[in-house]
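Just wondering, does anyone understand these C-alpha cells?
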Amino acid sequence: MLDALPIPAAIIECSSGKLSISAHNSRFSDAVAISTAGTLEAVSAQCLAGEGLVYRHLAAWFGDDEGAKSDLDMRDGSGVAARFYQLKLAPLPSNGECRRALLSVVDRTAEEQAERTLRAEMLRDSLTGLPNRLAFTEVVEAAARETPPDCVGHAVLVVDMLRFSRINESMGSLAGDELLITFARRLISALRAGDSLARTGGNEFGIVVALRRGTGDALKAATRIQDAMHAPFRLSELEIKVDCAIGLALMQPDQDAEELFRNAQFAVKQAKASGRPEVYEPKEASLARRRFSIETELRRAIESDQLAMSYQPLVNLKTGEVSGFEALARWNHPDRGEISPTEFIPVAEESGLILHLGRWAMNKATETLAGWDAEARERLPFNIAVNLSAIQIARDDITEMVGGALRASGLTGDRLTLELTESAIVQDPRRATRVFDKLKALDARVAMDDFGTGYSSLAYLQRLPIDVLKIDRSFVSGMMTDPDSVAIVRAVLSLAEALGMSTTAEGVESRELATTLAALGCVSGQGYFFARPLEQAEALPFWLSRLRPAASKRY
C-alpha cells in the first residue's frame, strides 16, 4: 500500500513509549536511516538540525504534548546546496495499546528556493542593485536588536539628490538612470565597513551608520558623502555638479524603524533649507506637526466662516484724521485660542489655502466698507487696504477676484488699496507688472508693503505703477535711537517724493515717532500709538472720533 504513494512514507508505531517503524516504502528507505534502537536518526546525515530531532518531534506528538504539531520543517545543508523537507504526521487506527501514524516526507527544496529568490527580488533595487526601501527597514530593525560591542548606537542618514528631476527632464531617463548608478557607487565609496546603504526612493538613499564615538560619527559620514560628491558627474559630453541634502536621525531605544526613517526624512527637509546636514530635533518635528494640524483646521475654519477681520487705522500724520483702514485676518480658535497671523498665514501660503483665504479677505473687506457707507448713508472719505500674497499673484486671477468683490459690494476701485510685499514683486516682476496694470484699470491703488526689506531694484519702482510705499517697521521703530534708521527713512521719503508716490510708516508706537515722521514728510502712519487693529463695529466710531470739528457735521 505504501509503495503506491508518490512520496517517501512510513508507518510509525508507539507502544509503551517506544517508537518504531512498522512499514515504509522504497522512497522512504532511500531517505531515512533506521537505528538499531528503532528510533529515527535523520532524513539524511545532514538533514536533521541535531541528533534526535525527528525522534523528539514524534515523541511529543504521540505523547499528546500541548503545542505539539503534526508538521516538522527541516533543513539539510547550507548555502545554495541546502535542501528543505517537511515531515507530516497523520493518525492511523490504533492496534490495541499500540498507536500508529503515517509519516510522510515532502521535499520543499524547489518551493523554498523559489520563495527565497522572489524575496531577494522584492528586497533589491533593480537599477542600482542596492537593497530597497523594504530591505532597509529590515536592516534598521536588525541594527536596533543587535548593537556590536564597540558601538554606542546607530544613526540613520537619508541622502536626497538635489535637482534630479531637472536633470531627468532635460537629459532623459537613461541619463538619469546612469546618474543614479554613479551616485550610488560614490555613496558606497564614502561608507565604512559595517555601514549599510539602500535606495529608498527615486533619488533618495538611506544609510545605517554604526556610532562608535557618538553623533560625531554620523556627521563625519555626512561630510565624507559630501566630499565624494564634490567632483562633477560626467554624463555624455556634459559635466554636472550634483549636490545632496543629508538628514540624520539618532536611533532611540525601542524606536520603530519607520518612525526613525521619517525623522531622518524630516531632517532632510531642514537640510534643503539650510544647505548643510541637519540632525533631527524633536522640537522642530513638534512644530511641523502643529503646522500640519493648523493647516487642517484652517481649511475647516475658512469653509465654515470662523475667521474674522480686524481693521487697523491709517492716520494722516499732518491732520490726525483717519485716511483708511488696513484689513487684517484674525483667527480665534475655539480650543487653541487666538492664533497669530504670523503663524497661520505662512501655513496658508505653503498649503495653497492662501487662495481661498485671500478671496475671503477681499470679499469681507469690500463688504464691510460698503456696510459702513450704508450705515453713514454716504460715500465715506476713506478707503480700505487688503494684502495680497505672492502665491496669489502667481496662481490666482487677481483681476477677476478684485473685480468680482467690487461688483458684489457696489464699490468703485478707487476705494480699494492692494498691498503687496516687496519680495512678492521682486520674485516675478513681469507678472507683477501685468497684474498691476490690470488693477490700475479698475482704478485701485497699489501699495508696496515692507519696503526696504526685499532688495528691490529702483528700476522696478520706476516701471511699476505703485501709488504708495510702506516703510517697514524695522526701520521706523529704530529711528529714535539709530541714526542709520533715520537716514534710511529719509532716503525712502525722498525717493517716494521724486517718483510721485505717497508714503505710510508702519509700527508708529509713540508721539515722538509720529511727530518726527510728519516733520520728515511722511504722509500717513499706522501703529499702536494710534490704535490697535479694531473690530468691525469699533472702526467707524474711531474714524468719527478723529475727525476735526468742522468736518464732523457731515456724519
